[in-house]
Amino acid sequence: MVAGLPYRTAFHTGLPFREAHERTEQELCKWLRGKRYDIAAYENEQQDLAPDAHMRYVSMTGTRGWQLRERTAIGTWLTTLTVHEESPSRSWISLDVEHVPFPGYEPQRAAVPRLARLLLEEFDAYDDEAVLRPEPELIRPDRVENLLELVCAPDRRLPVVVAAPHQCRPFDDWRHEVARLTADLPGLASVYILDPTALTEFNGGMGDGPHHVGPGAVRTYLAETDPAVADDALRHRVLSGRRIEADPARARQVLGLLPRQLAANRPRPGALAKVTFARQRTSPESRSPEAELAGLRVRYLDLEHLLKETEWERDRAKDQRDDLDSRLFDAHGELEAEQRRRSRLADRVRYLERLLCDSGHGDQVYTESSYADPPKSFDELLDRIGELPRIVFTGDRHKALSLDDQHEYSTWAVGAWDALRALSDYADAKADGTFTRGFYAWCKEPPSGALAITARKVVRAESDTVCHSAKFSGYRMLPCPVTIDPSGRVFMGAHIRIGASGRVSPRMHFHDAVAADGNVYIGYIGPHLPNTLTN
To answer: What is the CATH number of domain 1-123?
Structure first.
């Protein structure tokens, strides 16, 4: 999973503020006892619960909050718990856990904290109408209608994860597998498992179209799900039963990543006030000079750590802003180019439709297409490369699958598939002698009826700096058959821009060996390889 991601959850409960506050504090005390901290010091609202554990408190009308700072050798863990009154009968509870590293160290990923599970067990925790539980909730046929309403609810914030029963495994065994698979989701999504008799009814309610969930699969439905719009289905990630069983640990990681990323980047609900956990002043009781000096030293160290935390958070915010600016700029360019391409294709389709009608074959205009849908993930794409006879993937499968961890994975998979199909058409034409130039020329001026991608996505060769640098060129010495090169590797400078996304910016590197053996070898699909602009 991506390093450094915090854990963040926020939910509402139908309790008045006083009761919500008292019950939250009970679970907080239970959690602190489990960590063997000084509960007596906590109950007296003292800050030092242990030598490296300091609690801060905030209390305002309708708001109560705690922030535990636990220092380690490489940084500080911040656990922030807040209860806020939205109305006399509704309160919000939020929990954030984040690692702030010391200079020279990387931020650590926050696991689902035990405190989160305690809170979800104690409260009826809601995201809109969806109940958040620490374990997957079983859905029988009489509750399918409620689940369909939750999936399509317009005001929910968090993903809804739906697991289908497995065709070849006992249901109880599969139910335990799903619980392990979704162990990173408490507080980040509402999770449901359909019993064997509920799957058909659920898929029927989703329209039996692209929004369905197949046997043994697990699907993540994001906010604003609309089964009536076929293209909307691409947003909702599917993990097939085959992929889950092939690598359960990887499947768990992939399933947990997107909800974690969404939670980390989502603004807090408006009902949650912005709370500042300032260090409280010590009591003005008379103290010895030695005690005063020791207190000042502690105060100095505390302020020094706070300064480092603030600087790190500032730098991280700047990096995030720069990355988002880069993504937005690239997305605008991609969108403009795609809109022009779609406009040209629409004009061409209308022209061809008129030709068919004028020739007396107008009925063919409305004949259903037999083309299969493009892959929705890189996992599916790698499985389907075999459909393209002259395209051979020789690269690292794990690098390609890492793209499924990103928000744009489904869009990139479609773009990569379009590029592979264009390469396949190109290879066929070059192999039979009807085309003699390179792939860039093919895309620049595609033959009539040929599949091609926009030429601006095709890079014929790397820069001289990259080619002549052992450091950078080494990354581009990619696998190929020994019939192409006895070393089993060949320099693949030619590549295709699959997408633009800040530091990821996925690429597909290939070697055109059609003249040698009729094939195009794909040596790499994955994040942008290092060059002079990367670290």
So the answer is: 3.30.310
Q: What is the pLDDT of residues 481-513, one digit of tens each?
A: 999 999 999 999 999 998 866 568 899 999 999
Query: Where are the chain's structural domains?
Result: 1-123, 133-268, 373-526
Question: Chain centroid to CA 335: how far?
Answer: 22
Q: Looking at residue 208, what DSSP letter applies?
A: S
* 328 pLDDT above the threshold of 70: no
CA distance 87 to 67: 24
Query: Is 133-268 a CATH 3.40.30.10 domain?
Result: yes
Q: What is the pLDDT of residues 422-471, one digit of tens each?
A: 999 999 999 999 999 999 999 988 888 788 988 888 988 877 667 767 77
End-to-end CA distance of the chain: 21
Neighbour-count burial for 459-473, b at 16+ CB within 10 Å, e otherwise? eeebeeebeebeebe
pLDDT tens across 188-225, in order? Answer: 999 999 999 999 999 999 987 889 999 999 999 998 89
The three state secondary structure string of 356-413 is HHHCCCHHHHHCCCCCCCCCCCHHHHHHHHHHCCCEEECCCHHHHHHHHHCCCHHHHH
Provide the residue count of the chain. 535
List of residues 6+ apart from 333 with CB closer than 8 A: 500
